[in-house]
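Session log. Operator J.P. requested a structure for one protein chain; no other inputs attached. Running the standard single-chain path with token output.
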Amino acid sequence: MNVGLVVYALCALTSLLCAAMLFRGFRRTGVRLLLWSALCFACFALNNMLLIVDEHILPSRDLSLVRSLPTLLGITLLLYGLIWESDR
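Structure written below.
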């Protein structure tokens, strides 16, 4: 088994676990910053899954632009949460 695949899979699982814990914290406390952070980590997990597809399943195709979109969306969501939710 390729070491890169293991590392990418562990990164995806870690991001997914962080997102799940942040969602659970949001449901328990209702703090909206936890929601925005959870959405950000969910997007990071999607990015890591697309990295596995790009590097190991479809190595002949360049999916770097498609891979970057979930990361951009995640950072945008977190930035929105940090800026606009701080006014409340």
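Operator note: The helical segments are 3-29, 32-57, 64-84.
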